[in-house]
Task: structure prediction
Amino acid sequence: MSEQQKNWFSYPVKVHPHHTDCAGIVWHGAYINWMEEARIEYFQQRGLEYSDFVKIGYELPVVDLALRYHKSMKMGMKAIVKTRVDRIARVKIIWDYRIESPEGQELYVSGTVTLVPVDREKGRIARKFPPRLQLALKEDLD
Amino acid sequence: MSEQQKNWFSYPVKVHPHHTDCAGIVWHGAYINWMEEARIEYFQQRGLEYSDFVKIGYELPVVDLALRYHKSMKMGMKAIVKTRVDRIARVKIIWDYRIESPEGQELYVSGTVTLVPVDREKGRIARKFPPRLQLALKEDLD
Amino acid sequence: MSEQQKNWFSYPVKVHPHHTDCAGIVWHGAYINWMEEARIEYFQQRGLEYSDFVKIGYELPVVDLALRYHKSMKMGMKAIVKTRVDRIARVKIIWDYRIESPEGQELYVSGTVTLVPVDREKGRIARKFPPRLQLALKEDLD
Amino acid sequence: MSEQQKNWFSYPVKVHPHHTDCAGIVWHGAYINWMEEARIEYFQQRGLEYSDFVKIGYELPVVDLALRYHKSMKMGMKAIVKTRVDRIARVKIIWDYRIESPEGQELYVSGTVTLVPVDREKGRIARKFPPRLQLALKEDLD
Result:
């Protein structure tokens, strides 16, 4: 399946006062909360509850994050956090993000986030995906 | 209408990693974000978009906050933030809160939050509710 | 020692953009971060490194929190978070807080926070203070 | 002055519970707070109080952010947020960051952040640096 055909996972959000700063717009770090939430909901829809993944001894820390801020969001505005797995390189999962207005005319933020599975007991990056994660990423690995 | 009959407004939430701390539970300050979100959605359902209220020159700052933490929430758990206007004393709006498990068997947090309208231009507490807020609080004022 | 004579522990802070919201003032939940930091520094000055306390199997969760917001703080302002142990009731540690301007003329926030020690292995409130915590609270227990 | 000779500005930080997540480490978004604080202190040391800059009608929003997470930080750990202006391209200010252990043996996070001055009244990017910002960046512009 080509990149172009890959569907985005959509996670709707709304700007509340605690997301904003004194410039009257969403504080640049607040988008990261939404991006994490979108990722976790993505996994859940594919059968992986993140808290279960933690219970079986793994973590999925962020090792790389790159964001571009195109247009600011203000109090009360709604947006869709769109995400998809762009590609998988060994055990690195590289995600694409686009935070857009509900109808898609405006792009607020775009970016990529890279995760790696960590084996908590060994305290290091897992050499391969644990089966449960492998299953959740099935369609992204093809 | 007696307190007992007053309906709670329900706002569903879910624990994501950014809400938790190293104790593995929701960090005590994180509930305050959810409580604010619930309040703003409450107003919206009653016709007051908070960002519009700000545009016409008002704020609704918190002047008092009291929380009791009954039981901790963990990663992945869902809850309902229940809120209602407990009473109105002149221009003080006193809200009740209960953060409960989805079926209501568990109580995680209970509390009250007091807001007052502030006239931004005058830089002080408004002497009476602006009409738009008055309207949104109509059923709470009876 | 009477309450009046008890010294306050002082923790200096400064308002940065991420503390503020679209009303141009410190967001009401942001003070809770500072209050936690002040408490941890208090313990450290009395010989208890909180991360060590966690390592030996305990937590000190907040079970009660009450804040009054007297005056708002703006971007760039400095303040002193003053805290002290107001009293100890069995295993409850009740802290007093005052967040004031550097010279003490202005009071921004006052409040109380109650902590209890939790034994992580047993998953419940400890029946008495672990020795290390007892030692750190020595002057508050007299 | 060559890049190698440019001094880093150092801003000391410490991990408190509210910075951590259920993985027991600093949550990846929490570093962004520290990075912002370091930048504002940098400007202050060069005579520009950020709140004054806002008062005269400007903002300095982040338009680009790229972070690499090398090693995780745990509760109670201290670090130095090191920053410097890497280069200035027209009105873009590109900052370098390194978050290191106090003695510099460990690198936790490295990254870059790009800011642009925005003229609030016109609602768009300023065509040149306002004089006060120009002055604060004097040694970076040479």
